[in-house]
Amino acid sequence: MKKRIISMLFAGILCASSIISVSAATETEFTQTVSNIALQQQYMSLINTLDYEVELERAESGISDVPITQEILDNCIATSTDENGNVVNLDVKVTIRDLGTVTRSVSEEGEHLYALTAVASETVHNDDNVTKDGITAYGTLIWIDHLGINNELFGVTGQWLSDMSGYPTGRQVMHGVVGGNSVTTYPTINAFSHYGSGLGTFKGFALFLETHCRTRYGSDVRLRIISH
Question: What tens digit of pLDDT does each residue of 13-25 get?
Fold first, then answer.
């Protein structure tokens, strides 16, 4: 009888310990989730200060919070490839917005949030050298700048502006870590935005956004942006 009582007591202790452990783990996970949500809200409050028409104007005018070096320009590439595989490099205008800082905890320094916007246009001329149709592609890469190699991709957004009804087609958007994990989506409209839901998913020294679309004349317009 004593052995049975001792066994029951031991089982009860184990059960109680398991409940406490699970409860503690659940509470920790809940706290972490709440913390991540609060952090994302801080980042989004900074991102919501972006006006994309203003950013395009800044890029066109050469205005930037961070000096646009040749290295930054080299990391922003736009091309137009026709059906025969002929490639034309397109002029790219770039601006970087310093959106501000966010602090994860009182013991940590604030982290800078940057938004790099690049814009490029392909124009088609008629026989009189008058612009007939065109595609403008722009994209914004938003990242959290950490000291070291683990920068975080927070979001990407962009749009295709077209003079041609029903175009572009074949829209494709890729974003992630250069040489690492990434994701590809296929927008059904001429705009896209991906923010924050994968906070921490894409970490690396260099982050990227790449877009593709197909014009009325069959050419593929590509815009690729890499964080500096």
Answer: 345 454 445 454 5
